[in-house]
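User: Batch of two.

Assistant: Item 1 of 2:
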Amino acid sequence: MLISLSPKPIYLLSMNNIFRFCYSSVNSLPKKEKKIESGDSIIERGTEEEEREKNNIMGLKLKDTFYISHGSPSLAIDDSIPARKFLKSWKEVFPTKPSAILIISGHWDTDVPTVNAVDVNETIYDFYGFPKSMYKLKYPAAGAPHLAKRVKELLTASGISRVNEDRKRGLDHGAWVPLLLMYPEADIPVCQLSVSSNRGGTFHYNMGKALAPLKDEGVLIIGSGSATHNLREFGPRDSPPPPWAVAFMSWLKSSLLDGRYEEVNDYEEKAPYAKKAHPWPDHFFPLHVAMGAAGQNAKAEIVHDSWDGCAFSYASFGFKAAS
C-alpha cells in the first residue's frame, strides 16, 4: 500500500461510488522498475546531450506553452473521459517534436521550487484504489539532468534565492498520465518542476517568465493541473456543471483570451467562486507558470474544453509568444 507523506490527503469518489485516493507530496515514493519498457519493446533512444545537440544545430525554437487539465488518473485508461481523445490527438494540436519537455505538475508541492535531476524517470503510482491495469502502466522517458541544471540557473538568476534538485524522484501521475497519451513513444527527455502552494500566483507567473528562454532551446513547457479542482464536488458524469463552476470557468476563459493575466495572477481576489473552484491552489499554479513562460503579450487560446465528474473542467489552454 502506498502511504501519503502529504499534509493534505485528498479523497475522491469515483463513478462507481468507490473511494479512491491520490495525493500530492513533496516526497512521493515511486515503485521501483527493473527495466525500461514501453508496451512489449525496450525503447532505444539517444542521450539527452545528443538530442540537445541535434536540436541546437537545427535551431529549434518554440513559441508555444500549454496548460493541460489532467483530471483523474484513470484518464490513462478510460476512453469515456472526453479529454482522453483530445490528448491522444495531441500531435495534431502541436506537431513539432520538442528537444525536451519541462512539465509542472500540481502533484509535486514543495516549500521551494525543486526540479528532478535524474537520468531515467521512474513511474510514480501516487494513487490507490484504481484498476490493477493502472499499476502496470509505465512511462519510461529519459530524464533531463542538463535541463534541470538550466532550470535551476534561470530561476536563481531571476532572484529566487533557493532552488533544489531531487536526484531520485521520477514522474507523478500529473506528469506521466497526460504524457502517456500525448507522447506515447516516451522518446523525449522529461524534467519535472514542482509548484510551491505556499507562494502566490504572481510568484509562479514570474517563475514562468524566468523560464521563457527555454523555448528558444526547443523545450516544451507544460503546466499540468485542473482548471477546477474541488474533489468534494465530484458527482455523476451526466450531471451538468454547477453554477459556481460555470461562473469560474467563464471568468477564467475571458480573462485569458482578453490577456488579463494580472487578474489571473490575483485570481483569489478577482475570480468568482475562486475558493470553491480551487480550495487548494496546487492544481491551478501550473497555469501561471505556462502563462508566464509564454512571455509578455502572449496570446491565449482554448485548445480543449470539456467536463467530467460534474464539476471538473478539463479545459486546456495554449499560449503563443508575441512575434
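Item 2 of 2:
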Amino acid sequence: MCLYILSDPFGVNVCSYSSKDRYLFLQLQKEVTKMAKFGYLGNFLVLCILLGIVGCSHAQLQLNFYAKSCPQAEKIIEDYVQKHIPNAPSLAASLLRLQFHDCFVRGCDGSVLLNFTSRTKNQTEKVAVPNQTLRGFSFIDGVKKAVEAECPVIVSCADIVALVARDSVVVTGGPYWKVPTGRRDGIISNPSEALTNITPPTSDFSSLQTSFASKGLDLKDLVLLSGAHTIGVSHCPSFSSRLYNFTGVWGKQDPPLDSEYATNLKMKKCKSINDNTTIVEMDPGSASKFDLSYFKLVLNRKGLFQSDAALTTSATTNSYINQLVQGSLKQFNAEFGKAMEKMGRIEVKTGSAGEIRKHCAAVNS
C-alpha cells in the first residue's frame, strides 16, 4: 500500500502537482523511506496516511480531463448541444436545473439520471417530488450515445450533465464558465435523499442557508445560483400556495408577494389551486434571456417562489442582490460562472470511486 502511494499516490502523477505540493510530497517521501529503514513502523504508517492525503487532495477534477483518453469528447458534446438546443431553447433551463438537482443529492455523480430496474427493485431519485418535473433525460441519453460511439465507457454521465448544462446556456446567449471534468458516476439513487436534500420553492431563508452550507456553498453562491431563475418556467403547484392558502389558511395570500402580480397570476395563469399543468415564466417577459431581470423582480416583490422572496429577508443576500442589479451583466455572468464551477465540485467521485456508466439511466451490470 505504502509503496504504491510513494510511487503514484491514488493513481495521480506527482508531476501534476504544483511545485509547492510536489516539494512537500518529496520531503514526506524521504521521511517515510528513512523511518521504514530504521523500523519506526508507527510513524511510518502515519506518514503513509499523510502521503495519501496529499495525493487524495489532488485526485480531483481538472480541465480537459479527457484530453488523452477521449480528446474529442467535449467537442462532441458541444456540437450536439449546438445542433439541438436552438430547436428547443427552453430545454437549456431544464438542463441547468438537472445539474443542480444532481449535485445536491450525493454530489455531482449522475445519480439523478438512474431509472428503476427490476434487478435492484429500488425506486430512484427520479420519482421524488422535487424531480417529477425535471426534463432533459432523453437529451442526456442522446449526448451519451454520441460520446460512446467515439470513446466507449470513458466519459462519465456526471461530466456530461455538467458540460451540457454549461453549453446549453451558452447557446441561448448566456454565460460561459469553466467545467473541470473527471467525475465518476454514482451507483446509488434514493428518492428519500432527493426529498431531503433538494430545497423546495417554499423554503424560507433559514432552510436555504442551511441547505447550501451543507454543500459547502455560501450566501453569495445562494444568490448567484438563484439567478438561474432568469430563464425557464415552473408549474403552478410550486407557488400556488402563495396565492390561495399561504400558511395553510384558505384565502390567505403571501404578504411579501406583490398584490398586483398575485392577482395577475390568479386571473391569467393559475386560476385554481388544483391546476397542475399550467406553466409560468419565472422571469416574466425575459424568461428566454439570461440577464439581471430576475433580481430586479425579486427586489420589487415579484419573485415567483417563496424561496425567491426569502432572499430579501437577509440583509446579506438582499445587499448582494442590490449590488448585482447596480452592476453589469458581464459581472453577474462572471460571478454566476464561478458559483456554477463551485457547485459542480460538490462531493464528486473521482479516481476509483463509482463507475463510468455505459448507459446513463442504469448502473453497469
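The chain has 16 helices and two strands.
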